[in-house]
Amino acid sequence: xxxxxxxxxxxxxxxxxxxxxxxxxxxxxxxxxxxxxxxxxxxxxxxxxxxxxxxxxxxxxxxxxxxxxxxxxxxxxxxxxxxxxxxxxxxxxxxxxxxxxxxxxxxxxxxxxxxxxxxxxxxxxxxxxxxxxxxxxxxxxxxxxxxxxxxxxxxxxxxxxxxxxxxxxxxxxxxxxxxxxxxxxxxxxxxxxxxxxxxxxxxxxxxxxxxxxxxxxxxxxxxxxxxxxxxxxxxxxxxxxxxxxxxxxxxxxxxxxxxxxxxxxxxxxxxxxxxxxxxxxxxxxxxxxxxxxxxxxxxxxxxxxxxxxxxxxxxxxxxxxxxxxxxxxxxxxxxxxxxxxxxxxxxxxxxxxxxxxxxxxxxxxxxxxxxxxxxxxxxxxx
Amino acid sequence: xxxxxxxxxxxxxxxxxxxxxxxxxxxxxxxxxxxxxxxxxxxxxxxxxxxxxxxxxxxxxxxxxxxxxxxxxxxxxxxxxxxxxxxxxxxxxxxxxxxxxxxxxxxxxxxxxxxxxxxxxxxxxxxxxxxxxxxxxxxxxxxxxxxxxxxxxxxxxxxxxxxxxxxxxxxxxxxxxxxx
Lengths: 382, 180
Description:
The complex is a heterodimer.
Chain A: E1 5-9, H1 10-21, E2 25-28, H2 35-47, E3 51-54, H3 58-70, E4 75-79, H4 81-97, E5 101-107, H5 124-129, E6 138-140, H6 145-162, E7 165-171, H7 172-176, E8 178-182, H8 244-259, H9 262-265, E9 268-271, E10 278-282, H10 286-299, E11 304-309, E12 311-313, H11 317-323, E13 329-334, H12 339-347, E14 354-358, H13 367-377
Parallel strand pairs in A: 2-3, 2-4, 4-5, 5-7, 6-7, 10-11, 10-13, 13-14
Antiparallel strand pairs in A: 1-8, 6-12, 9-11
Helix pairs in contact in A: 1-2, 1-6, 3-4, 10-13, 11-12
Chain B: E1 3-11, H1 16-30, E2 34-40, E3 49-57, E4 71-74, H2 77-83, E5 91-96, E6 108-113, H3 115-122, H4 129-141, H5 146-156, H6 159-179
Parallel strand pairs in B: 1-4, 4-5, 5-6
Antiparallel strand pairs in B: 1-3, 2-3
Helix pairs in contact in B: 1-4, 1-5, 3-4, 3-6, 4-6, 5-6
């Protein structure tokens, strides 16, 4: 860790981290509360030799980063709810064509244009299932600026490793609040670079033929190899196919490459879990209020703990099940109507012990909000 | 546990949010404290009600918003009417006499200062009103040293405007000391 301490908004931290991770190309269309990401990158990215384009809309932005990535550039876009909806079709294309890219969604209140300047975590399920068809995807989040940095770098690393779009699901509170960031030195966090094919020019290159370890080396589009890229079900050449065995194999590949590696992709933090009778499960900004409650109750001797999820998708069901098995009850704290609540209920053996503390009115959930639900669960009234 | 919770409130364009950032940054980067700054605002760029929350602490700060401030600064009557009742008992409520009439009795030390008037008389540029207000605030509370504020200003303010900002900060400090 360097001695360089910065005092930044979460959106600015995301920018610093993207540059650290080797971002080459950004295309976006500004929208509150993500605008600072585009604004800062328009200044900083060209200075380090990268390209910044403000596109005509969110759909074009998403398509632009897919194209840029296919030519070998680390690419990112940033948006919020309404823009995230527009990007969904192209996100599906990136899933199908296995093109690495990072999509930041600084969540605001929805649906539709909703509450532009207010916090929300209402896009958790959209990150998972926003684009159509069976698929898998990676989604990360963070509750403080040091973790925003780490998860942003992680997003680029996972995108390259698994050749998949990775969604960074932040929210208005994290995006706009300022706190310290201890800027990591260049070597502190390992970076995953593009895996290029070793197939020589003039030799057949199969863009969708996995190596033994399951990874798919890439060749910069427009470079030394000719190959096809399509959103249709395709064979190892990248050409459309409707053969059942090809379709079956590709669908399994797309899902299994992520779902079979949940333990490698899962990032989480735990606080006082070992003897906790009540475990709060939270993520993103809401985890700050949850941790406030846990720490103040611990100081009074109460056995509370916090499981903070940083990987939301693929959902770390095994971690939740194992780490929470001994708790008498679980309280999911989130800024939506219970999107992660349902995943927690599916993950644990006894779903009736899972409760929800949420906030959906555009204000941020307070420790008092959480304590009131705790009192209800404990039969103490509010 | 030393923890100070501050709300700056006023209207868009008064520099309320900028002042809150400068204070938090001074504490975080130049005084070794932990600081979190958060703001809430409407869709308007100017004229809307603005509010910025700052928490300063020796310990980690989890919940980033202020529900009950120790220190409340209200720079419009609307802000005063909206927020004056949430101050912590025994806290400090600072207003500017040009913008606010303190018409309520609250369980706090209410201080009314002629910061805007002083800026217009001595400097003649309302753009540094927020820095004068910061000077008065730290003069009254010693939250951070004036040198730390100046270090932040040297980073943030274009060279040509630095002297005017220094003057406004010192003016604010003298407004605070004249009331003592």
